[in-house]
Structures are given as structure tokens and as C-alpha cells.
Amino acid sequence: MSASPLAELLRRHAADFGPVLPVDLNAADVTRLDFTAANPRLATADLRDTVAFDQLVQELLTAQQARIGVGGYLENRVIYRRSPGLFGDPAVPARSLHLGVDVWLPAGTPVLAPLAATVHSLADNDNFGDYGPTVILQHELEGVTFYSLYGHLSRAGFGDLQAGLPLEKGQAFATVGPWPENGDWPPHLHFQLMADLQGRRGDFPGVALPGERDYWAALCPDPNLVLQSRWLS
């Protein structure tokens, strides 16, 4: 599969991006977390119980002597079975291909604009297993407009944001949310890139059908082109 035009643009500007979170994603205490069926710990986990799910995340981090977990881009995950109403009808193939990167770290961690931006739209997608508070930023490079999405945020300060608000590179505009307000997930940031929002505002699919991988990968290129974490190469 050839790289999308947006992916090539982002590669050319790799040195221009600031951090999305005020942490070093290449530090020794950062590790990859696997939420596919290949992880035996997920086979018996009660993922609908957020307390148990959060404990599982902490156990996975502890087992790898890590404080922060990352992963997810184009990962065929089993964790979406916790909210089948959002991710598919049990009678048809499930949407399980993750289109962003998740960074699992404490609630309250600031979220930063990696590049100068304008707030495109925001919404509190308040359903079990959904994004919870969500912000979409609009960016421009070489005359090309593209977007970044930040899901599972805190409601604290969320009401201060509005569409059209300009942000400087490195400016904190949100924080990682606690459950249940973050869509009822263990605290983490869902970070995703989009070449086209297809008319959407405050929301965008973060999970797709595995059979549509090529289509969605072209529309939503690898977030590690911005994050640049060794765990996501």
C-alpha cells in the first residue's frame, strides 16, 4: 500500500511538530500495549467493568515496568466488544480496526497542540465506550488542510473551548479525562489524524471494518508521523 499524500506531507515536516503530551514517549518507562486477540490477558477480562479494565491496564504496565502505554494504529482489537452498540451489530462483522494511537497515562495530563491550529469543532460524545469530550483541530501545511482528533478528554475546561479558537504550537487546550466522563475508559488519549472530515463535526470514526483497511489508512495516516515514538514505528 503506497503512502497517502498527507502521510508524505507529514514526513516532510517531521521536525516541525511539537509534543501532543508533555511526556517523552521514547523514555524507558513507556511501553507498547497490545489489545488484540494475541494478548491472552484479554481472553477472560471483563472489559465492560471499567474498574477491572483500568486494573488490567495498570497490571500490563507494571509487568513491563512502565508508567505509560502506547499503541493501537491499525490494530485489530478485541476490546470493542465492551460496547457492541457503538462498534457493530453482533450479527455482522465488527468494527475493530483502530484508526488512531492511544496513549495510556494519568487523567489530568495536559494535551498540547503539536502545530499551530484552529479549533474546528468539539462535542461531548457521552455514550458508554464512546470518545466522551472530543476536540478536532484544523491545521495547514504547504497550503494543505488536515485535522487532528483528541478523544477521551476531561470536562474540566472543556466549556471554555469554541470553534474558531486559534491555538499556538505547544499550547495546552485540554486534559486527559477520568472515567466515567471520558466515555468510561481507563484514562488515555485517543489521537488521530484525518485528511478529510467528510462533513463531520466533533466526532469521526476511530474504528473501522478490517476489510476496509486500505481506505481508512489513506484517510487517517499513521499518528506516529506526529508522535514519533519508537514504540509505534
UniProtKB/TrEMBL annotation:
<feature type="domain" description="M23ase beta-sheet core">
    <location>
        <begin position="97"/>
        <end position="195"/>
    </location>
</feature>
<dbReference type="InterPro" id="IPR011055">
    <property type="entry name" value="Dup_hybrid_motif"/>
</dbReference>
<dbReference type="InterPro" id="IPR016047">
    <property type="entry name" value="M23ase_b-sheet_dom"/>
</dbReference>
<protein>
    <submittedName>
        <fullName>Peptidase M23</fullName>
    </submittedName>
</protein>
<dbReference type="Pfam" id="PF01551">
    <property type="entry name" value="Peptidase_M23"/>
</dbReference>
<dbReference type="GO" id="GO:0004222">
    <property type="term" value="F:metalloendopeptidase activity"/>
</dbReference>
<dbReference type="InterPro" id="IPR050570">
    <property type="entry name" value="Cell_wall_metabolism_enzyme"/>
</dbReference>
